[in-house]
Structure prediction request, 866 residues.
Amino acid sequence: MTRTLAAIALFTAAAAVLPLFLGDNPYVADIIITMLMMASLASAWNIVGGYAGQFSFGHAAYFGAGAYTTSILLTTGNPGIPLCVAAGVAVSCVIALLTGAIVFRLRGHYFALASIAVAEIVRLTALNLDITGGAQGILVTDVSFGALDMNSKNPFYYAMLFLLVFTLCLSAWLRRTRAGFYLLAIREDQDAAASLGINLYLWKNMALLLSAALASVAGSIYAVYIRFIDTSAVLSLRLSIEIILTTIIGGIGTLWGPVLGATLLVSLAEALRSNMIGAFLVNAGAVSEGSAIGKFLNNNLAHAHVLVYGIITVLCILNLPKGILGMFRRKGSA
Amino acid sequence: MKEKLLEITSLSKHFGGNAAVSNVSFDVEEEMILGLIGPNGSGKTTLFNCITGYYPLSSGSVRFIGRDITGMKPDKACRLGMVRTWQRVKPLGSLSVLENVMIGAFAKTRSPVRSRNIALERLEMLGMGGLGPKAAGKLPIGLKKKLELARALATGPKLLLLDEICGGLNYSETQELLETIRGIRENGTAIVFIEHDMKAVTGLCDRIVVLKSGEKLAEGLPSEITSNPAVIAAYLGAGYGHA
Amino acid sequence: MLFFQSLISGILTGGVYALAAMGMSLVFGVMNISNFAHGELMMLGMYLAYYLFILFNIDPFIALLIIMPLTFGFGYAVEKTMIGRVIDHPSENQILLTVGFGLIMSNTALLAFTSDPKILTTSYSSSSISLPGDISVSIPMLLSFIITCALTAALYLFLAKTKTGMALRATSQNREAAQLMGIDVSRMSSIAFGTGTLLAASAGAMIAQTYYIDPFAGHTFLLKSFTICVLGGLGSVIGAAVGGIVIGLVEAMSSAYLSTDWKDVVVFVLFLAILLLRPRGLFGRKGEQ
Prediction:
């Protein structure tokens, strides 16, 4: 426990001073904020997916609920950002309770399918209602909050960092409590867990509720940061899947797996998006810029990051289903 | 006169048109070891699943410590003091042996420290003291069976339902486990014991219920059962001395 | 007349849904795997039909003769190299693998064909037959419905009468027992996945004139196919056929009487209701596990 806490403290300290070294580079800050966000989301998902073993394929619903609730409140007269965040958490928790009431009666394939269906209902509802701006989405202009400079990246950087550290501490603590043990028992064998006095329905819902609340906070921060949301950005099935992939690739059920996964995948996506890889190949002389391949890479690699996610997922499931950290752990214990 | 702990009244369970268990009644008293025997497919495990709340009953009732627990969920039954083990063992595979037993002990306490102590004690009692850090999924079958027992015991049960706990064990392992079970009863826990092989249970049980094709064929003291002509004809004739 | 118009278009659309869902159900039955790349396999059929028409001027319905063997081979190979390797894994890993495979397919299509939607227009794309009472029946939809019926019948005969078909059904009933009886279950998996791919791609090819063709066109059909399979009973091919028609009708009726925007919501709510009330579906034997 002390070692885990020390690691979290070290991580926090390093991350807290990082902006001082980055200086005023909004581009890099933006990438790191995205990493922190994906790491928070994946860590939140890990509580219900990694610890309790309940693969929710609809986590975008909770992220989106936070983002939408916050944006709607901000456009209808900014009651203060903490209140927006709290309202988002409340909405997410209601959705999570409804979802849990339906999906936790089901197992395996059926659970996965039902979680997608619930998330799709949330997405289509947001797409068709007036209050959520329909297909146009919501543009937020007033995000003022006290004396904070909301045009700077720093408030968002530290807000996301705080959320991530909070989620990590919570996960580490949970792992040592009865609740944490119960979630692991449910993951390993539901019938055995029930025979040992574990109320499956109660604990799965607790895990989902906690996870949904954390994902919602990430959504709220995102909404204030980007100031524009629509269903494809915050409620898509693709986001739900990216959250799962981040956790799986880093190492499901481990504390640092989601952080590692987010760091790798966000860097990779950015390297592809900014055409860093294409440029590298050209500079290294592997491909000439004017050739057909060079042109193809220049034009297309920017769109290829999801393709690369797909390839990584397939390779990961076929070759290291426990993720990168899981592989080390297995080797360590053997 | 001992108190009745478990009362099964006219319990039936149908799957579609097939009666897996029909109209079975018996009682279990405090500190009793009751053997539930019968050939494969006679409905023993189905009966367990009905008693512990894994299957809804088609008809009949189950009372435990004077309460009607018909249709009660397994976890709630466990918290009342009735716990079962599994014929097909269900270790929480990627957790350690100690963690497995701790999860059982959490039925008694919220505190991880206290649950750890209970778990260590139970493991010691079953002679698994040194196995705590091992991954439960990697144990050999005999130890997995013992782990089932340790985990169930850690919940602090009043009644323990053991489903073929000796299956897959060799002779000396079986004898050792039966000795442990006798010790558990002496500490005040009643036991219902499913066994396929009759010889294993006659020495241990206070009373025996024989099932055949889902129906109760006979009930009585072990001596009565082994001399009951119907039992001998239906079950012992073929299987006795076989194992 | 709105009612009859909706009834007819619901049944016609439902036929195509049924075809796609039968493929998914077959794969689920034989392999016990939920294929999340099923929509992408439909998308593959759409693009194949489009390019066969554009490049070689082959009518999309005739093109089925080329598309079917091609996609069967593709599915067979994919099962051998990828999907079949996780048959003993937990269902979450299987789902993620098929999700990953789907991402590869749709994003490869994105690189190859860009995200601009393509439209396949034949000489009869927008022609229709007028029935008394102002009801019109689209020719391409009618043709695809007829072919769907023929394919369903063929699939039924294949499963009921041929040796391979019976082996497939036996594997679907009980994989272990089938193996003990000497059936090559891993070959059955490959055949099931190949046939599933063939059916999905055929459905895609047949609706290529009716829907926009883009790399993510299969997405909506994925969730619909699942709904249909669950309604019909996961693993039941006949259930999928009936479920397809039912969902087609539900959609047509909710567009007509509720609103087009909410028709998908109605379908998903129905989906959840079936999962809760009758997880075995209408014809299913594999219930909640």
